[in-house]
Specification:
Helix content: 40-55%
GO molecular function, one term: glucosyltransferase activity
Number of helices: 5
Order of helices and strands: HHHHHEE
Strand content: under 5%
Number of domains: 2
Protein name: 1,3-beta-glucan synthase component FKS1-like domain-containing protein
Distance between the termini: 54 Å
Organism: Phaseolus vulgaris (Kidney bean)
GO cellular component, one term: plasma membrane
InterPro entries: FKS1-like_dom1
Shape: elongated
Radius of gyration: 18 Å
C-alpha cells in the first residue's frame, strides 16, 4: 500500500509540474522541499478533485481548516499583514533597504527552501511572521541582526 501511495503521489506531482510549470527538479534535490511539496500537491489535488480522497473516497478537509474563509484568514491574511507592516517600516521608501523587507526580499523567501520552515499549515509563530525591533537590520537571508 505504501509503495502504491508513493507512486500515486509521485505521478500526481509529475503531472502537477507539467501543468503549472514549476522548476521542480531544482527544488526536489532537497528532501524537505520534496516532502513539503508532496503534501501541498496532495492537498491541491484534493481541492481540484472536489475534496475527495482517491484512497478512501471521503471528503478531505484542507490542512488549514474547512470552515468559511479559512484560506483567506489563515494563509492570505497573515502574509498580507507581514507585507503591510514591512511597507510601513519602509517609511514610504525613505528607510534604508537593510531596515525592512521589500517585495524582492519576500519573493526570494517564498522561492527558497526557508519557506518550508513555515510548515503546512503555516505556523503563526514562524520567524517570517515576527517583526524585528526598530534597531534591527536584515542580511540577505532575511535573518534579523540586532545593533
Amino acid at each position: 500500500m505504501d509503495v502504491l501511495l508513493h507512486e500515486i503521489n509521485f505521478n500526481f506531482v509529475e503531472e502537477l509540474k507539467k501543468k503549472i510549470g514549476l522548476d521542480y527538479n531544482r527544488l526536489s534535490r532537497m528532501s524537505i522541499v520534496e516532502e513539503g511539496a508532496v503534501k501541498m500537491a496532495f492537498e491541491l489535488y484534493g481541492m481540484l478533485a472536489g475534496n475527495v480522497s482517491p484512497m478512501t473516497g471521503e471528503n478531505v478537509k484542507p490542512a488549514y481548516g474547512g470552515e468559511e474563509e479559512a484560506f483567506l484568514r489563515k494563509v492570505v491574511t497573515p502574509i498580507y499583514n507581514v507585507i503591510a507592516k514591512e511597507a510601513a517600516r519602509s517609511k514610504k521608501g525613505r528607510s534604508k533597504h537593510s531596515q525592512w523587507r521589500n517585495y524582492d526580499d519576500l519573493n526570494e523567501y517564498f522561492w527558497s527552501a526557508d519557506c518550508f520552515r513555515l510548515g503546512w499549515p503555516m505556523r503563526a509563530d514562524a520567524d517570517f511572521f515576527c517583526l524585528p525591533s526598530e534597531n534591527s537590520f536584515f542580511d540577505k537571508s532575511n535573518v534579523s541582526i540586532e545593533y
